[in-house]
Fold each of these.
Amino acid sequence: MSTLTKYSDIPYTGPAPTNREPYVPADAEKMNARGAEIASRISGVTQETGQDLPTFVVDKERIVDVLRALKHDLKFTLPLDCFGVDYPRREQRFDIVYQLYSIENNERVRLKVRVGEGESVPSSLPVYQGLNWFEREVFDMFGVKFDGHPNLRRILTHENFQGHPLRKDYDPAQRWLLTEEGVAKIIPQIDPRFAQEEAESDFERVTLNLGPSHPATHGTLRIVVTLDGETIVGADTEIGYLHRCFEKMSETHTYQQVIPFTDRLNYCSAIINNVGYCMTVEKMLGIQSPARADYVRLILSELMRIGDHLICIGTNLVDMGALTNFWYLFQPREEMYGLIEACCGARLLPSYLRIGGLAVDVPPNFLQMTQKLVDSIPRFLDDVDKLVRTNRIFRDRVEGIGPISAEDALDFGFTGPCLRACGIPYDVRKANPYLGYETYDFDVPIADGGDTYARYLVRMEEMRQSLRIIQQAIDRGLPTGPVIVDNPYVALPPKSKVYNEMESLIYHFKLIMHGIQPPVGETYFQVEGGNGELGFYIVSDGTKNPYRVRVRPPCFAIYQAFTKMITGQTIPDAIAALGSLNIIAGELDH
Amino acid sequence: MNTPLMHYLVWPLVKFLIAFIIVQVLVAAMNWIERRLLGLFQARLGPNRVGYKGLLQIIADPVKFLLKEDIVPASAEKVAYFLGPILPLIPAFIVFCLIPFGPPPTFTVTRVNVGLLLILALTSTGVYGIILGGWASNNKYSLMGGLRSAAQMVSYEVPFGLSIVGVLMICGSLDLVTIVRYQETNAWNFLPQIVACFIFLVAMNAENNRTPFDLPEAESELVAGYHTEYSAMKFAFFMLAEFSMMIVNSCLMVTLFFGGWTLGMFGIGLTTDVLRHMGMFGGILGTLIFVTKVMLFMLIYVWFRATFPRFRFDQLMDLGWKWMIPLALGNIFVTAIFILAGQERLMYWIGIVSIGLAAMYLFKPKPKRAAAPGKVAHAS
């Protein structure tokens, strides 16, 4: 029996997961009760019990009414996500899943609309304009049409792409020759405010492509703007240049193998993505990572958040011509990656986490190194803050630039620093604490105005708050114990045991060959990423591969508001605003 | 030795060649200095691979430019496209004939009694090359860069010229040598003309498209502005012209406001007469003083570049038309009043007081950063 133990001498006594058991969330009872409460207030919904969120199945004809009722009566003001799941054996094979969040009541809700092949769903844009791109993505990936959507064209794949890749019967080995032939030119719609002037003006308007390869579009974004002089009178954005089929690839890999893919979502804060994904799977498995692993996860998450903000502010300032700040901000980031390298050997894309804990233990001087970082970062922040915040040119460039109102921001599904810059203090770490954030003392900075300057201030202050969290964590000291769960069905046994003990070898073999097999069901879990709520929705069919992995990238919701933010401003403003949104193409394009 | 041929043709040509070589060395050195210095400002190294401390970079860069493939866009307007990089070079080189590097007559190429006007006229033609280049490239970014450049240079030409007027009124001459000689017997012009000096400093940055006025080539907005489509030697020509013009403007700054080749005021110190007494050595010393001062202003260019973000176009125009031009006109008005009253020396106090106030502002004790910065409120 003792050979079952892996990281400690205490034998594992928990149950062995038998395949294809249904997933029962820990708080299913509570959610069922809350779901029944909501169902009594909204007509035309069928509750689905046993889920980790209040879940309802809605007829497709009723969906807009239900969304409207949820938004206005139950204050679900933040549209988080809309995506599809394909069950080809069912008669109505597609689930269109909507996830909404209510900031006032701090609760989430999930709606499902079942549609069959060739059927269409009414567009929910009249209720939530933030679902615009999400619906386009569903159309692109599943071929489900949305009636009344004003611009229902492919979003992540090329216009000449054939088929809908996230359908289960799509063969990923197919290749398409994609050329510019037959692709409609993007002509931005002129904003009504400027439509009148066009007729009266003698001057020709110019349509200009910013990107996909442009110095200011970090990553590969494309913005098409129509200019009147230097004023943007119409704009359109095109994304998908960095689409790497994260969701489709996940379906053919084991749960453990998906972790490196998550690194590449928001590559500026890779560990946070790891944390989000691993915790989602852990939630599904019903396991809790050890205290030591949680502690390291928290410290590295906060460091990564700092790194993410450093990049955002640094590149934003570079775009405004303040080149020096870039290096001042990259210096601490470089040192931060040194710490991560000391932990796991990789820098930008560490893949340090494993489901159930960490890949390896931290180095013995982890806390000293972290303390050194925490001591050094404020100096750089203060330097940059002093250099730009008192600078008249900088203030003129950012104040009132790229503004968005709080209502619009909510409606577009903003989360993270961009939402907080509008004065709404929503932070997943406070609202739904994970990793023990509730035991740390920190503030959620907000600013008003929702402009580029507000976003700068919020990010600056968030870094200081993150430092506060890390300092508190250092003061508490590193918990002792293993860094990965003591569960042979989740974590690989150490090599020394694999080579010497039969059972360990078998578990090693089983885990490598058959992977982790969570119970059958679906779950959603969210963490606070560098840019906002980063959520993972996983459907498991009990096999080693996830049936469906859905990532809720915060950038995706934010970037769709970009055209609205820059219309009426000039190109330099658009560049400044773009930098302050911190659009990471890896995350935006999945 | 003193035949008219020698006097009017050979000597000036030889002197021009020497001046030209000095300036080209300065340009090359400046390129290296700027990059090293920016490295210092920006907590990084700068070029340090080729030669000692990267000094051979000075040679490596031109070699690279010469050997690179020269790409001409198929749809470019060929003649204008080729003229683009050449046009700004011509005035940049001619102007060096007019600048007194050291005590005259030996250390000046030519002495023109309307030298300043001629310099202004020549330097303002540099913009044609940029407009032509921007337009001929048949690229929207280039075009916008060219247009921005045209508007900006035309706008800043006005305060640039107006700021000089005050100096002319005090010195009573357009001849650069006379202006320098006036400064050594009185105070250097930055004291009575501190406002003009400041305007000149800003306008010369704008004239050269340097940060924070580098909108025509704003790399994050317009890719590279007017020279987006230029490669190899043509691009190098643009760079050469830009650096040459930086040196020209620094030379003007030194000549007009900082005593040229002299190192003395009120007839005390290393004045022209003292330098002449030293013979040839004095002349070289004067030239060295001049070059040192010029380099100091070149460093200020770099310092600006390392410090400031870039203006937005309309803000740039606002600054030019709403602030700089009225300020320059006001300066002329005030100067005129003092001159009419015959109290020119009283104006020194303006300079002294301004410098004092600036120093007080710079060195005043700074309050500690408040826990919560201005606009950010906390909610938990």
Note: Residues 3-147 of chain A form a domain with the Beta Polymerase; domain 2 fold (CATH 3.30.460.80).
Amino acid sequence: MILVCGGLADGVTELVCARLADCGYPYRLLDLGNYPAGFQVNWRWLPSGPKGYITSPQWKLDLEEISGVYIRYLGPEGRVTLPEIKASSAPAMYHEYDTGLMVLLEDLPCLVVNRLGGGWSNNSKPYQSLIVRQCGLMTPSTLVTNDPQAAYRFYESCQGEVIYKSLSGIRSIVRRLGTDQLTRLSLLRHGPAQFQAFIPGDNVRVHTVGDQVFATRVRSAAVDYRYVRKEGLDVNMEATSLPPVVEQSCLRLARHLDLPFAGIDLKESPNGDYYCFEINPSPGFLYYEKHSRQPISLALADLLRDGFTGSVERCTADCSSETGVR
Amino acid sequence: MHLLLGDPQDSFCLSIRHALEALSYPVRMIANPVVHPSRFEWRLNNDQSASQLVWGDEPPLHDNELAGVLVRSAGWLDPDGWRPEDLAYTQAETQAALLAWLWSLPCPVVNRYSPSLWYCPQPPFLSWRPMLRRCGLPTMEALVTNVETEARAFGRELALTGFPGTVYSPFTDELHYLVMDDKEWGGLAALQRVAPVCLAPPHGETQMVCVVGEQVIWEGAPCSEAALLEPALRRFASEIGLCFVALALALAQSPGGIAVIAVETHPCLELFGTVAQEQIVQGIVHILTGQNDARHGTQPVMDRSSL
């Protein structure tokens, strides 16, 4: 039995549930939007590991029945707070709920997509860059500094073709370093920032699902295609293939971080080099599946059912369907 | 040059500083190397990683001139003068830079924390169980439940085994509460209506132990049963990639036998008496000066040969 932990208000979780339903793969949804309301949990840690059950009004699931887990934690939005909880205490309670669940999932012997460990690397992009290099992918020339003069020297050494973006997991828009920003470099004294040589070319978003690789080429004139509408520009996506050596490096990177399912941001330069920018441990793949029509959710459903062992009996459900959530 | 990252008043840093200086090693103590007054510059590309620190008019200190780094601070900023939203962002950026930089250094780093321990330095004890189990370290039973009858049954079972009550510990708090009488069980049941609770048996006398490199240092002499755990303790330190980690053990005279009850990834010297403190300081100095061949002292998780 597959256990899906997430909120139905989240489109990605909804798609995972829909795909499992389409495939006829049995699953149970632990709705984190309401959890723990309506659920009973009883997990006992014995010397061999946790035993016990989860029940909802409709079902009871013994921990030993769980063959695979998909987990996508929710933010404060999409959660229903119990009436006994004050609004000011709600974030602390959500943290308590998530931590308790995390503790269980980390100790289940089955495949968990994804355990938390490797995901923490996403909070430090330069840390990921070190691993990216080790796994055989290229990383753009990067400067991390709190020294305005060093930033200016880097800008000049790159002939002014420089972008800046956050070092941490806090989402930021990737922007070009221009004359306006150069006048504000003195603010760096308050804390370090990350600068990178601008790499021209197409963005390629790679989803690794177990041992499968799905690459989506993203064509856009925007520096950060995620915010293409803000810049009034277009974005075009299509399925693409990667050189085998790049595919293998992506799989190596995901495995190194213990991420059975990962989103990896690459860029192919005009001379055919692939640079890696980051690896996302909880990829919102809905957007890419919808635009490239690649069977990412299908591969994920198979992975959750079969683990890494593979199976000859693959589901052939239509990937365009997003219904069937239960 | 040895770099000690921590508060100027940090007794641990001061002890290490004195020990290194007594051996004529140059030392600098600094709370956070990637913010003012340090000028921090780190260039990273496919072929190289090169960083330097500059203080005032001093010549730059290049990363290959660093002999060792002691990490006692995760780069926390002084909140004074910051707007909360700006502080949160800059704090996250600073910690991200510092974590990565520590991993880029070719010298020994005590400790070179994984991102999970860097960002979550005190995970709930239950989360250590898979690794403790793999390493052969015993733990006590525990129950997570929001079912009142299950909690009560667990309490009754413990009482029959001779435990004086049940300990409730929130996942996200270090506090522990002993649940004994009906009123306390009633309070726990009220809590269970809003959140699953984590229950465990109470433990008796405890003993601290730490692993420094390959050395296991006990606070006081270990009993024979505890001493047998030394290989498992070394394995545990190696598995989590730390060359300095402390654990608390509930001793054999507790009902249920000897068991690990706490893991401290950022141990304070004050957890130990003076004899053990001296051994710890000497052990860490050995690692920082490259005299310790503990594999997990310098290359814990990431193969740094390609950095």
Note: Chain B has ten helices and 15 strands.
